[in-house]
Amino acid sequence: MKAPLTSDDVSEEFLTRWIDGQVSEEEAERVGRSPEVAALLAREVDLARGVGGLLREHMPTALEPPGPEFFTRRVLEEIRGEVSLGVARGARRRWWKMAWVAPMASAAAVALLFLAASGGRLGGGEPRVARAYAPDPKVLAHAFYSEAAEATVIDLEGLEPVPDGREIRAYAVAEAGPAVPGRGQLFHAANGGRAVLALVGEGAEGPRWRALE
Amino acid sequence: MNRQSFLVLAGSLLGVGRLLGQAAAEAQVEGYLFFASNEAAAPAQEEAVTAEAALLRSLEGRLGKVFPFGHFHLIGRHAQKVFKEYESWVVPSKDLCLKLDSRGPAEGGGVKVHLQLWQDTKVLVKSDAALLPGQPIFLGGPSWRRGRLIFVVMLK
Fold first, then answer.
1. Same domain, A114 and A11
2. Cβ B76–A139 below 8 Å, yes or no?
3. pLDDT tens column, A127-161
4. A85 falls within a domain
5. Which residue range(s) make up the domain with A102?
6. Could you tell me if residue B107 is inside a domain?
7. Which helix (H) or strand (E) holds B102?
8. Domain boundary among A118, A152, A182
9. What parts of chain A have a pLDDT lower than 70?
């Protein structure tokens, strides 16, 4: 039986595999026999998750990450690779740890990451089925193709339920024309043609609708 | 011609130019909002929303293969052209609506889209996907009243 791991055994590569859940049973067992290392790894995992949340909060809505894995292992790999350039090896981990918790650094990291990671790929390429990304870190978006249903499925887990007391006002809407400057876009009922909704604005907070009846 | 008349004329010409430029729709899509539930009774709606019976039966059957509910009540629908280089909204309900950006034709006769599903002021999910003939996209949304709201978008 190998000796329990010590903090000196926790390399960047091991840490990445640990966060990604890719350590062997033997390695996990060695961690389990070292309370010091287990606590260290727990802190690192919390830190990585916190950074993922920070990045999601800072991300402009117009940008999407290259994939759903972006906020976990890739975050660590990319930021370590890009941000720590020129930093002495011995000082590297302490340096990036400090950077994580600084909002300015995280905002700068977002810009750097997206430049590095997107590399012109955003908006290009044929999606295999669908790439889905939920900005809320509490929400998981599973995208897959269902052969049985012959449909692409994007299943969202972790969404806040709509309160039971809330009414969902829905319509049968016919074709809406292009937006008219100064008037917004009108959406007409399928039966009768009366306008039922107007899109009166749009911003970071999403669309602003006005019910017309 | 005074300055005001010139601006009106220039604005009109620009508007006409934009309309001509966007005249060619890339696709026509249909968005459906379903309430999935194990209760046979549909939620009360101010206006009954219907669709072609065969299409509805097909969609309900296909939804049942993905989402474990016994009933799929159609509560909203919206047909909308998707224009090249323009964003389009598919709004069967302002409570849950879909923003579509065309990303050009897809292999197989469909269209590549970037879509965003919005609930009020929150974007629930963003996705790059392909809308292909006969292959809808199901978006499993939030739960509501012991059921779940499901958005379906497909080529018309």
1. yes
2. no
3. 446 889 999 999 999 999 999 999 999 999 999 99
4. yes
5. 7-118
6. yes
7. strand B96-105
8. A118
9. 20-21, 49-129, 178-180, 182-183, 213
Judged by CB atoms closer than 8 Å, whether chains meet at B141 and A143 is answered as no
CB contact under 8 A, A64 and B128: yes
**Residue A85: phi, psi to the nearest 5?**
-55, 130
Distance from C-alpha of A163 to C-alpha of B62, rounded to nearest angstrom: 27
Query: Residue A197 has which token pair?
Result: 């909704």
Residues of A in contact with B97 (CB under 8 A): 207, 209
* Count of domains for chain A: 2
Beta bridge partners of B153: B31, B137
Instruction: State whether residue B145 is helix, strand or coil.
Output: coil
Closest C-alpha among B100, B37, B90 to residue A170: B90
Task: Give yes or no for a contact between A130 and A154, defined as CB atoms under 8 angstroms apart.
Answer: yes
Residue A132 inside a domain? The answer is no
- Give the model's confidence band at B125: pLDDT under 50 very low, under 70 low, under 90 confident, else very high: very high
Going from the C-alpha of B5 to that of each of A36, A181, B16, the distances in angstroms are 78, 18, 17
CA gap A203, A62 in Å, rounded = 11
Cβ contact B30:B132 at 8 Å: no
Task: Give dist(CA A205, CA B120) in Å, integer.
Answer: 8
B52 within some domain: yes
Q: Count structural domains, chain B.
A: 1
End-to-end Cα distance, chain B: 47
Say whether B142 and A159 touch across the interface (CB within 8 A). yes
Q: Is residue A152 part of a domain?
A: no
Query: What ipTM, to 2 d.p.?
Result: 0.84
Q: What is the distance in angstroms between the Cα of B132 and the nearest Cα belonging to chain A? A: 9
Q: Is residue A206 part of a domain?
A: yes
CA atoms within 13 A on the CB side of A39: 3
Q: What does the pLDDT read at residue B17?
A: 40
